[in-house]
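Retro notes, structure queue

What went well: the backlog is down to a handful. What didn't: a couple of records were mislabeled last round, so from now on we paste the full input next to the output in the thread. Example, using C2H2-type domain-containing protein from Thermothielavioides terrestris:
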Amino acid sequence: MADHENEIIKCRFWNCAKQFETAEELRDHIAEDHPGDNVCEHCGQAFLDKGSQAFHKKKHDAPTAFKCFIDGCDHAYWRADSLGTHLLSKHGELIRQAVDQFRKFGPHDLVTHSPPFVIEARD
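Corresponding output:
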């Protein structure tokens, strides 16, 4: 930790050369001197630089390739791990039931007899 004691933290906003000793000072500076800079027009999230904002913008602009496969759910995500989080948090019990059904089969059954399927919620 001692290696970081004398480090200077530079403001990364365009055309700003200010430097700070602590991250808290940098946060205060950004709140006072750069309000509204590099803010996402879709969700309002603020970023330290245009590069981070541009990367974030892909979330709103990119096609959502990872669609929820649960019947009746129209959620879609641009990252596979986000879909995984959605599946576990919103459809966890349904997923567990499907996994339990597959555990009843042996390896031969799964390879030979696995058709494409859709998991449907039971009322």
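Agreed that this is the format going forward. Reviewer comment attached to the example: Residues 2-61 form one domain.
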